Amino acid sequence: MTHQSLIFTNDVADAIGSLRESMGNPSAWVLMDENVAGLVKPRIEGPALEGVRSIVVPSGDSHKNLTTLSSIWDALQKEGATRHSLLINLGGGVITDMGGFAGATFKRGMRFINVPTTLLSAVDAAVGGKTGINFNGFKNEIGAFREASAVVISTCFFDTLPREEVLSGYAEMLKHGLLSGREQYDGLMAFNPSAENADDLLPLLKESVEVKRRIVMEDPHEKGLRKALNLGHTVGHAFESLALERCRPIAHGYAVAWGCVVELVLSHMQMGFPADELRRFSSYVLEHYGAYYIGCADYPALLEYMRHDKKNDSEAINFTLLRDVGSVEVNCVCDEEKIKIAFDLYRDLMHI
Amino acid sequence: MTHQSLIFTNDVADAIGSLRESMGNPSAWVLMDENVAGLVKPRIEGPALEGVRSIVVPSGDSHKNLTTLSSIWDALQKEGATRHSLLINLGGGVITDMGGFAGATFKRGMRFINVPTTLLSAVDAAVGGKTGINFNGFKNEIGAFREASAVVISTCFFDTLPREEVLSGYAEMLKHGLLSGREQYDGLMAFNPSAENADDLLPLLKESVEVKRRIVMEDPHEKGLRKALNLGHTVGHAFESLALERCRPIAHGYAVAWGCVVELVLSHMQMGFPADELRRFSSYVLEHYGAYYIGCADYPALLEYMRHDKKNDSEAINFTLLRDVGSVEVNCVCDEEKIKIAFDLYRDLMHI
Fold first, then answer.
1. How close B93 gets to chain A, by Cα (Å)?
2. pLDDT band for position A45 (50/70/90)?
3. What is the nearest CA distance from B114 to chain A, expressed in angstroms?
4. In chain A, what is the straight-line distance between the N-terminal and C-terminal CA atoms, in Å?
5. Which of A91, A312, B23, B248 is buried deepest, with most CB atoms within 10 A?
6. Residue of B nearest to A132 (CA)
């Protein structure tokens, strides 16, 4: 875990080249989806990728499954990869998750590096060692904990992303800011991700990834502290599930932003999180993300989704809450009446 | 790794019951093949296994594949297993390898214990954390390193095994004796596994498993010392492959016993391994295992198999050799002329 290099650069080809060299120039494969193969890969072509073969898989979360995984293993095997070879996962979270799992299991583990091409995967998926695939429609049901040997993080790909994608990733950065402390948080609140400029974003992104890395290093297998990273996710996942049921899916990061608002309301009610910070945060979210509409009639379904979150040990609903910005408490149980009141207050704050 | 319990007992049901209790009585599943379900499982029925559900898969190495693995994941998912549940792998190496991999990857890792029912899996497969399945006909191509939470080792199942199975497992014990030192080795040479009595075997087995555990603890991911456990396997695997090509497969342990003879010849030639020990070992093998027939015409094929062993980093053929009983040298390269001479001497020693 501690040996992982995090490289922040806008010369990705050069970074990959140096990494390969430091590993003794192993045979290498780059895994990507069809979109990345067309749009992104050409940007990093050059001597550093000479002799590197490509494995291209279909795009999208619906292909993050055993069939695609099996095709990756198959390609590695047929083309003679060994446990000393290198797999380069170039893409968003689907690719870093699935490629990480392929690398963790091919010949019981080959080396892999992650090169996230979306803000969300840079800030969230590429670091932390959670790898896996969906199975029978359940997300990340099969997988392993395994860190990439290195993660190369660059903002140079982000201009290929739609604005919604950038905002989605930025929500995880907001979450990291809330967990980390006032300084980082204030920096994020002062930034407008929609008018984003890659050069200005890089230092914020670097701070943000470091938050995750620190937490994961202390608790790689999510026995305690790592649950801090679930801030906003208990409610966020329920919003995502409800949206999916309504056949109008929402982006993960948006759900997290709205989930954070509800969970900060709970933090205020249960842990004394300051009311002015709650208002400041919810205004920021409303301004940049808009509001996710819920009515009283949705509360039972939302509670039901939360009870079945795989992070729960039992029927009780578990939250990560804050006493203040940077002061975190994991494993907080809130009763259903309180959660309903928090939904009411969320609707007030969101002008619903 | 250090937290793994190794339990030697002939009251397996009681041991499983205590383990479950120490884990807080999690929901549990027992994985086994059809043979074990019919012959072995009834022996451990009782209160300790109450409420434990069964997952039964087809028998044999040909079913150690993605289809069977997927059916295990499927059963766990459909029956509501969580990452806190327990999987009990009851069987030979196929079951402990495949069940270990299922456990290592279901929800990114649930707890599992191994209860080996064959001597070979007790002494070799159940301890050491190598899990996996075959893929596209390549053995153990996909897998992970992951130790069982506990291994319950008993000789009480072995009377269900054919004599050939017991001898096959005993060959790995001989290998451990060669690696460990004179005392353990002499004990093994003085024992007749064919006239085997389960009670007499248990102390020898315990010593033998401890050898593997010590080596694995020092080098879990096979970066150096663990390669010691490959003694006899470079040649043994080539014998197995040749036998398979001839459509007359041989038991793994037999191949290891014969492979050890060739590799002790190499040890004698290259490292000064004592000639009288070589003769003593080869006589023991000839008496209990007979000889595997090879002629000069087979040498090129055997060399070719050895060059393609997945443990090789390059084209050179790698061996673990001994200076003496208990004095081990890993990463020894032997040239092909020397290997051919060793095959000649093997044929002399085996009266071929």
1. 16
2. confident
3. 19
4. 44
5. A91
6. B108
Residue B130 has its nearest CB partner, among A73, A108, A143, at: A108
- What phi and psi, each to the nearest 5 degrees, are found at residue B285? -65, -45
pTM recorded for the entire structure:
0.90
Cβ neighbours around B286 below 10 Å, total? 16
Q: Which of A70, A138, A140 sits opposite B77 (nearest CB)?
A: A138
How many H helices and E strands in chain A? Answer: 13, 10
Give the chain A residue whose CA is nearest to the CA of B137: A77
Show the tokens assigned to A61. Answer: 């979360």
Pairing mode, if any, of strands B138-145 and B130-135? antiparallel
A39 closest CA partner among A22, A56, A16: A56
Q: Could you report the per-residue pLDDT of A49-63, keeping only the tens digit for each?
A: 889 999 999 999 999
Three-state DSSP class for residue A4:
coil
Chain A contacts of B104, Cβ < 8 Å? 144
Give CA–CA dist B105/B82, Å, rounded. 12
What HEC string does A257-287 produce? HHHHHHHHHHHHHHHCCCHHHHHHHHHHHHH
Q: Residue A3's CB: how many other CB atoms inside 10 A?
A: 7
- Separation CA B82–CA B139 (nearest Å): 29
Which chain B residue lies closest to A82 (C-alpha atoms)?
Answer: B310
The residue of B23, B85, B108 whose CB has the most chain A CBs within 10 angstroms, and thus the best one to mutate to test that interface, is: B108
| Digit-coded pLDDT (tens) for A108-154 | 999 999 999 999 999 988 889 999 999 998 889 999 999 999 999 99
Are B187 and B150 in contact, with CB atoms under 8 Å apart?
A: no
Distance CA B258, CA B48 (A): 42
The string of pLDDT tens digits covering residues B124-166 is: 888 899 999 999 988 899 999 999 999 999 998 988 889 999 9
Amino acid making up residue A97: D
Pairwise CB contact (< 8 Å): A143 & B105: yes
CB contact under 8 A, A73 and B109: no
Contact between chains at B144 and A108 (C-beta distance less than 8 A): yes
What value of ipTM does the predicted structure carry?
0.89
Strands (DSSP E) contained in B34-168 are 53-57, 86-91, 111-116, 130-135, 138-145, 150-153
Whether pLDDT at A2 is above 60: no
Here the tokens at position A233 are 């996710």
How near does any CA of chain A get to the CA of B145, in Å?
Answer: 6
Nearest Cα to Cα of residue A210 among A190, A187, A184, A186: A184
Burial class (CB in 10 A: 0-12, 13-18, 19+), B22: exposed
Interface touch A108/B138, C-beta < 8 Å: no
**Does A310 score more than 90 pLDDT?**
no
Q: Which residue has the higher pLDDT, B326 or B200?
A: B326
Q: How many CB pairs under 8 A join A and B?
A: 71
Q: How far is A204 from chain B (nearest CA, A)?
A: 30
- How many whole angstroms from its chain centre is CA B76? 26
In terms of CA atoms, which chain B residue is nearest residue A72?
Answer: B142
Average pLDDT over residues A205-234: 91
Q: Which residues does B contribute to its contact with A (CB < 8 Å)?
A: 66, 70, 73-74, 77, 82-84, 104-109, 130-132, 135-136, 138, 140-145, 221, 310, 313
